[in-house]
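Q: How do we represent a protein-ligand complex in a form that can be generated token by token?
A: Start from the inputs.
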Amino acid sequence: MCFPSIGHGFDSRIPHSMSQKFIKNKEDFVCGHCQAEIIGNGFTNHCSKCLWSRHVDNFPGDRANDCGGLMAPIGVETMGGQYDIIHRCEKCGMVKKNKTAKEDDIGGYLTRMIE
Ligand SMILES: [Zn+2]
Ligand SMILES: [Zn+2]
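Then emit the structure tokens for the protein with zinc ion bound:
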């Protein structure tokens, strides 16, 4: 019995992950949805103006996902006085919850939802 070696995480032939530069966690970015310039604080990965995000994390801040799709805010949830945004990736359809930051414009988002 001889099995060909197919990659299970130990395969160094994985095409692109080795050649990509790691992105610093505390990066500034331009929102892919409203083009606002966001100053990264190391915690938030979404736009504080329109709340759109980008699918780059498996777990918050790890930047381990290379999907890169834009994530639409599809809802807001309150948890003990704290807001969580529900994001859905427009590219792969993944749904994730994200903690909000105090500079996030939740009020503006909720107003736009109602309008
Ligand atoms: Zn934005
Ligand atoms: Zn995605």
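The mean pLDDT is 81. The longest strand covers residues 70-79.
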